[in-house]
Amino acid sequence: MNRLYLTFEGPSVGESGVPVDAFAHALTGMQDAMRLMVEHLGGRQPGPGQPPRWAREQSSLQLTAVRPGSLVAELTLAELDGQLSLENLGEQAVEAIYNWDGSPDSALPPEVTNRLDAIPSELPADVRVWLGSADAPLKTEIKRPSSVVRSVPQSEEALLQGWLREVNWHRGTAQLHDYAGSFVRLRFSEEHAEDMQRLARQHVEVRGHGQFNQKGDWTPVTVEQITVAHQWGEPFDMDRFLNDPNPKIFDPDNLITASEPFDVDEFVNIIHSGRDEGRKESPDC
Q1: Confidence bin at 148 (pLDDT 50/70/90)
Q2: How far apart are the two ends of the chain, measured CA to CA in Å?
Q3: The whole model's pTM is what?
Q4: Measured between alpha carbons, how far is 217 from 237 in angstroms, rounded to an integer?
């Protein structure tokens, strides 16, 4: 999938068309939504400054046709110069936006849905705009923004373990895989690039911050600290134990003790008594 359609309908569209400024605003909104979706799929957190080149290239849309009747704008994903990335982020973004149902609880990132919601804001009041394809041009109506303000997910502290895979030093992204084959997308700064390269394909512990989506899954987690994690079943490593930068030290002065006198013999007798009662009730065991 590499093509999206915006259809503008209303009593005045067929006669006088759509104002150029409003039309341009709608197309810019779709382009921005595409770029934000590609950045999300690539593991980059949107922020101030110029988007990276790979995000701009893989999200670039071209107006390839304008059809009469109800005004239809055909937007096609631009071809890349050179070999297409194996991730096909542009096509994934087009498919994700095409499958949007227009609801506030969709799986799209909030920044993408907010940009899509703003598309009709400059159009005349009697004009409706639809998102779709050549086969289903009126698939999803992009309704005008309401007065309801959507809550922005709060950043949560993350402590994750898994296998570090797909480390991309140019983009500052990676994946943390678990036993079941699922993974969490990671993003990292130049400060952690050397550690990410050194620990690639190892079992690691990641500390950082991220957000949960509507399904309760992590969105890309920003790496703040990454270290080798000890896997269950591995043989004891004395060198790793002796060189642990955060060793767990036994401190007898900080022991947690029982607040009341504790009779060990009485406790053992209660255990034996309960066991004997169980045997009487289940003679076949």
Answers
A1: very low
A2: 64
A3: 0.53
A4: 33
